[in-house]
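User: Could you go from structure to sequence for me? I need the amino acid at each position, not a summary. Structure tokens:
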């Protein structure tokens, strides 16, 4: 039952993104949630998360679509869940690659009988065949981003 509820939240986020509905995207977050976006910026609180997504839906990610796939759910007690997601973002903005992949991690807590996202951390997946000279860390790191989790 809990897995189904958590999967519905992930589906709600995907649908909200694809409908460019920042209010619906922010709805499953706790009032005081923390959201670290793909470039490391930190939004604190549902209102900030909603405003941040409204800004990107109206600019850089206008017309984009996302697909979220739950890779793994881990429970840290009966009222805390960690959900690992693989994200595929299709973009059409000039200067952006047509597809970006990321691995969001969500921490959810059951509050008043409902699951709420309390933390969302989004990490960009570096392309496995990325050209050298574009990112000094990615250039030197021995392991590039991969479509499957290491150890699977």
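Assistant: Here is the amino acid at each position, in order:
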């Amino acid at each position: 039952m809990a897995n189904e509820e958590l999967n519905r939240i992930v589906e709600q986020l995907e649908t909200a993104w694809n409908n460019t509905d920042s209010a619906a995207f922010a709805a499953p977050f706790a009032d005081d949630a923390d959201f670290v976006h793909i470039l490391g910026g930190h939004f604190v609180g549902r209102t900030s998360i909603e405003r941040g997504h409204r800004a990107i839906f109206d600019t850089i990610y206008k017309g984009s679509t996302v697909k979220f796939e739950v890779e793994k759910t881990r429970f840290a007690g009966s009222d805390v869940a960690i959900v690992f997601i693989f994200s595929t973002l299709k973009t059409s903005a000039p200067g952006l690659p047509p597809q970006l992949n990321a691995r969001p991690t969500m921490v959810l807590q059951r509050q008043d009988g409902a699951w709420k996202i309390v933390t969302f951390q989004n990490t960009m997946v570096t392309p496995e065949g990325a050209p050298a000279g574009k990112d000094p860390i990615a250039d030197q790191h021995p392991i590039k981003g991969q479509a499957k989790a290491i150890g699977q």
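One structural detail worth keeping in mind: Residues 2-18 form the longest helix (17 residues).
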